[in-house]
Amino acid sequence: MIPPGTEAALADSWEYFLHLAVVLTPLFLGASFLVGLAQEYLPPERVETLLRSRDHGSGNVLAAGLGAVTPFCSCSTVPVLAGLLSAGAPLGTAFSFLLASPIVNWIAVVLLFGLFGPAVTIAYVAAALACAVGGGLVVGSLDLDRYVKDVRITAGDRETVTDGGTAAAGGCCDPDPTPSGGCCERDAAATTRTHVERVSAAGRGALSFFRDTLPYLLVGITIGALIHGAVPVEALQRVAGPGNPLATPLAALAGAPIYVSLSGMLPIAHSLAETGIPIGTVIAFVIGGAGVSIPNLILLNELFERRLLVIYATTVVTIGVVVGVSFDTVLAGVL
């Protein structure tokens, strides 16, 4: 026998699922196109060139900005990070890139705008970038280079070597590049492509990216719909409502084990906000999940010693808590 209210709850979940799917699908396609354009005009080698041997301060600001606009997922962020270190970028500068990359990107900005509006989106981006810059500055002042492993990372047809965070031979576009067949030659060939060819490639890449990420988006929409229709609001309020002073740090920690992708996290976050969970707690959940996801930590373990890995995870959770508390206090009357 079906428990009373189950049919109504499932009907509510289905209605909310359709609502999210209709809202998010065009937004996600548009964001995927922007991702493709960014990949065309800002490939990893270009990012490494821009950040090579940058000083602290201005380098951290540039690194955080590039981390936000370059659409690298965990599997490509780590090779890019290794490339930055091997090219001579200070660890603190590379850390600002690493912190900004998963939590501020085209997908996050476009979906946040569609789900929460411009005020929340602008505040989120500004706060997250400021924390990424600050986190990188702090890490850069702690002399942690010795906790970067000596590794050789191969990604596609690029090979990057790190030597305890210092520059190493064999990086992309060295001062004396390979005369033929090297990445510098490929970059030179890439610059000859017309804008129309780049836009066309970005369109094809958007469709491919959308197909690859659609399962994660559907998982997130499904979970969000079930939370909206089937989970009692009272239960969520007891755990993550304003009455629990530990709700924000717990949310920052809880995001990691259930992370599927940022595109899947945001529908869940929207559903939580719809049930009355404070927006700061929801934002902390998103930041913690995006930055301290299990896949991200596994990949970073190849590059960082355990102590530096813990420092990274602690920094991300701290950013989630700081941004979340700021949303619920300082920005509560504005947003």
From TrEMBL:
Localization per Swiss-Prot or TrEMBL: Cell membrane
Membrane topology, as annotated, equals: Multi-pass membrane protein
One of its Pfam families is ArsP_1
Q: Which GO terms describe its cellular component?
A: plasma membrane
Asked whether the UniProt record includes S-adenosyl-L-methionine among its keywords, one would answer no
Task: Enumerate the transmembrane spans.
Answer: 16-38, 59-82, 94-115, 122-142, 214-236, 248-269, 275-297, 309-327
Q: Which UniProt keywords apply?
A: Cell membrane, Membrane, Transmembrane, Transmembrane helix
Q: Which InterPro entries match?
A: DUF318, UPF0718_permease
The entry sums up its family as follows:
Belongs to the UPF0718 family.
Please give the name of this protein: Permease
